[in-house]
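Continuing the batch. This is chain 6 of the set; chains 1 through 5 are on the previous pages. Same settings as before, nothing changed between runs. Recording input and output for traceability.
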Amino acid sequence: MRGGAGIFSDLYPAQISTNVLSNPPNAAIWNIQATGPDIPLAPGVANGAFTQAAANNAALVNGFASGGTLASIRAAVPTFNGPNFYSTTPHMVNPRYAEWNLEVEQAFGDKMVASVNYVGNRGSKLLILTNGTNAFVKSGTTFASLPATAPDPRFGVVTNLTNNGISNYNGLTASLSRRLTKGFTGTLSYTYSHSLDNISNAGIDQYSLNQFGDSLRYQVDPQNGRLNYGNADYDFRHVLNLNYVWDVPFMARNRWIGGWTISGVLFKRTGQPYSVVNTGIPGKLLGNYSTTGGYVMADFLGGPTPSCTVNVACLTPAQFATTATQTDFGNIARNGFRGPGYFDTDLSIKKTFRITENGLAFTLGANAYNILNHQIIGDSSATTRANDSVDPGTREWQPPDPPAQSPHS
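Output for chain 6:
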């Protein structure tokens, strides 16, 4: 029997400093959008992209240095829009984790060992990005608790980094190992676990980029974090592993007939969690998701959620509110749905030819990956929108075109 516990600190990714350093007036990244059919891209061309960006930058820098206002800057550059801003909590601290485990191991004879290991941890003071803390809604649109006008029109999108994130993990692993029995060595293990957090990897290094809802980067509701706490992006509830090596004992000492080795691995797990997002909602919002890649989760109306298979829909648009009727950031926690499971087994066969009696040998082998040719299915396209339709026999639907964006810095 063995166990342990401890309190540990962690470092946050260094790339977050780049976002802070790009805040004006230190530096500004300008997005220039054409107002006509095209815009000159060559430097030095009148009314070109570079000329417009330079004019916006000069107006911002000069206005900031002289105590100017948004109105005075726009008087010089009418197309000027407030810059995006990246802020952090006033007293950032390193994330911290409490970790513990307890393992019981039992030997059976001198060749077999069984063990059961419980592992848990709790994270606190974790990083979480809140996208669009100054978000508001378009005129005539009702949406949750957001205001109808910009809280501070001097800025575009304000993204805030805080230490409000938490995480929890509990897992139990049972394993059985057998060694050197007629040339056979193998280990079989099974893990049941549950991992929860607000945002996996702080939203800075996404776990998955396969589909829209695989890894959300921001706090979904900028005014309330309740929707974010749910299954972690890498919450695989059941995991089964098998690895083995068999040195075939038949005629092992015969230089030409013996010397065979068969080895392989088998891996099976349940599906990855994901969120269903409504890509039509950002069009209702300003100063928020429509310009920075955040998503709003769809309102789930209920119904069956079968496991995804080829040509069988995981979910249908009818199970979710339309863009016209949804007026909130979602009604279920992040990562509330689960994709198809994963299975794979690989096989290796080798033949060793002894060349000399003192150990010089030559080995020839073949490796087969996914030897059963098992089909691996990814998550469905986890998006809905108003007036969606799904053709019979398909399992996914595509998002609409992104909403038009106004010029912003």
